Amino acid sequence: xxxxxxxxxxxxLMTHRPLPQDANPAGNVHGGVILKQIDLAGAVCxxxxxxxxxxVTASIDRMEFKAPVQVGELMLLMASVNMVxxxxxxxxxxxxxxxxxxxxxxxxxxxxxxxxxxxxxRKPTQVPGLVLENPxxxxxxxxxxxxRQLRQEERVxxxxxxxxxKTALNRxxxxxxx
Length: 178
Known about the structure:
Helix content is 35%, strand content 32%. It is an alpha+beta fold. It has a single domain (5-172), classed as Thiol Ester Dehydrase, Chain A, CATH 3.10.129. A five-stranded antiparallel sheet has the order 2-4-5-6-3. The chain has a two-stranded parallel ribbon with strand order 1-7. The longest helix is centred in the C-terminal third of the chain and has 38 residues, at 135-172.
């Protein structure tokens, strides 16, 4: 049995200073650049929790861009494990932007990512449990469990819709199976 790890042990703070090639002509950093940094910060956090295991991004939920990021500002990416399953971890990443001249900060983006731990055989493997250390961690864990339930329900609805469509097509043209 793996030893559970506290949330604080894997919390991660990364920074990124976007350059002109990261932006559009108006100087706003492309969302894809921000998303890449979010994925990197989330993966580092997940790897710190899993220790010794590689991780892959399985999904990204609720990617929200709240304010533009300008070239030359400092992106502060704060990542924290919110919930763990048998093979997966949900990591929340918050992006704040700091104006390096004035010190002003603003919330620029947030996302929830699910990472799956991979063993040396490149198959999903067990991850350590999570020790929730305070009421904020407990709230984030409850919210993560609700998001997980919604994702599972959505997958079931999608499969049912695909099966219904397949059945309807097969009734119309049995040779269309495939």
